[in-house]
Structures are given as C-alpha cells and as structure tokens.
Amino acid sequence: MERREFIIEGCRICLLTAAVAGISGLSSCGPSYPVFKTEMVDNKLQVPLSLFDKNALQVISPRKFQYEIAVQKNSDDTYKALLLRCTHQSNQLIPTGKGYLCSLHGSTFDKEGNVTKGPAELKLKELKTEVSGTNLIVFI
Ligand code: FES
Fold this sequence. Notes:
Mean pLDDT: 84
Low-confidence stretches: 3-29
Distance between the termini: 49 Å
CATH superfamily of the largest domain: Rieske [2Fe-2S] iron-sulphur domain
Radius of gyration: 18 Å
Order of helices and strands: HEEEEEEEEEEEE
CATH class of the largest domain: Mainly Beta
CATH architecture of the largest domain: 3-layer Sandwich
Strand order of the largest sheet: 1-3-4-5-10
Number of helices: 1
Bound molecules: FE2/S2 (inorganic) cluster
C-alpha cells in the first residue's frame, strides 16, 4: 500500500468512527453498564435482586444465547426486561443511557422499548419477569 492510499484509508476509518459516534450520541468510550453473565436453564434466567441495589439498569448476558437482555428496576419495585434484539433485522442493540441503539442501520429505542428512530417500526420484545425469593426470574 502506497503512502497516499494509507492516508486515504486512515481517513475513511476516522470518518466512519466519527459517524457512528455521532449517530449514537456516544463519546468514544460510551456509557458502560454492568453486565451480568449467567446460564439459561429451561428458558429462564435467575438474576440476583441485589444487583439492582447500585444500578437500576442491568444488562444480562446469557451464555450460549445470541442476545443480551436489559432489565430495568422501576421506582415502584417492578422490573422491565427487554430483549436487546433490533426489530428491523435482528441486530444486537447497545444501551446508550437514553435507550438503545442499533449500530447496523441506526434505529433507536427509548427505555420503554418504543421506536424513536427507524427504520425499525416495532417496539422491542418485553420479557416476562417474576420475583422469586432473592432472585428475579426472566423468562426467555
Ligand atoms: S437491524 Fe437494526 S436498524 Fe436495521
């Protein structure tokens, strides 16, 4: 690769990075959320309720499952679990702090899972939850 081609390619990468950051409203590192890795058993996840003591939003990453799940503890002590799968073409979504972003075509969703920007048209799938002892059960 000649020097000129190297510089052009470097500029393309910088512009792409800036465009993605601009679309998402993220800084270069973006907000970070605690990710809880767990096993899925009988299409259920067990999440310790104590995780929500410090952070109302937890991202759950089931092993051997393609998508993460965002679980939000509400002020009335109920929980909302959203499958972080874009309803446009099934890409994994990224939490932004204001909601969720699809990096594939730029769809955005609010914290309730409603579409705030297309091309996605359908809201995110909400998963049933149930408190059982010291755990939250999320039904996949
Ligand atoms: S797959 Fe998410 S916007 Fe297309």
